[in-house]
Write a structure and sequence with these properties.
With about 290 residues, this protein is an alpha/beta fold. The protein has 2 domains: about 1-175, Rossmann fold (3-Layer(aba) Sandwich), CATH 3.40.50.620; about 185-280, Pantoate--beta-alanine Ligase, Chain: A,domain 2, CATH 3.30.1300. The chain is built from 12 helices and 9 strands. The strands form 2 sheets. Strands 1-4-3-2-5-6 form a 6-stranded parallel sheet, with helices on both faces. A 3-stranded antiparallel sheet has the order 7-8-9. Strand 5, helix 8 and strand 6 form a beta-alpha-beta unit. The protein is globular, with a radius of gyration of 19 Å. The structure holds adenosine monophosphate (AMP). Adenosine monophosphate binds near residues 184 and 187.
Length: about 290
Amino acid sequence: MRTLRTVAELRAALAQPRREGRRIGLIPTMGAFHDGHRSLMRRARSECDEVVVSLFVNPTQFTESADLAAYPRDEGRDGMVAAEESADFLFVPAVSEIYPEGFATTVRIGAVTEVLEGVHRGREHFDGVATVVCKLFNIVAPEIAYFGQKDVQQTLVIRRMIRDLNLPVQIEICPTVRQPDGLALSSRNARLAPAERKRATALYQALATIQVLLSAGETDAARLLAAARSELEDPLIRVEYLQIVDPDTLAPLTTVDRSALAVVAAWLGNARLIDNLPLATPRTRSA
Ligand code: AMP
């Protein structure tokens, strides 16, 4: 695996494989690799000839400077993980390489950015995500880019950007990788104190409760959400949102009689965690 730091070096390294028609896959990340990142790398490795992992803690998508400052960074370890997963290139640009002096462009996506994370983190978060991912698509020009279901709203934002801007990239969404107790892997889990870590499973329990009741025939969103909310009643947990939404628009549903998505965001101590679960209704499953 080669670690490259400039756009020019990466473009030069990919020129020959591209001429030979080799399929290039990109996994955009912010590092602090865990098994969720590994699953994306493995999927790309199985589908692409050249696997590019980008590692860039993108300052423009952080709406709080303390969150950016506390973001875990360990390039040495991340490099070992990416090499273990047989990535071909680790792209680690400096902030000045991505945002040089005078940088003045923002990619702003409407509609799907205006709810959930867009309300709670601010839509500037998705401006930062869309802008950096658009740049990475232009720098790497991958055939396929890999994202995690864990950040489902991000996947919808990227899909919208690809359609609206006619970007020639296919995206693949990989399932959420979880701990044995259901907690979705996240670099932010490291911020949980032991007692918080123990209770953090409640987010998944709340989502799973919705699926269990739905499978038993309950379709009223208010009743499903009330049951889920009781899983989250704990002095250690501060819920920001818990909703059942349309999987394409993220608009709230009142009756869950078609494919849907349960989404949650909550604070435990200093860690803000998000999770989601695609819901199968008895009807969508038998269809
Ligand atoms: P990040 O480094 O947190 O920006 O994540 C990089 C990519 O890994 C994103 O597409 C995430 O959605 C994905 N990802 C993060 N956590 C998980 C997880 N637990 N399971 C699957 N994918 C994940």
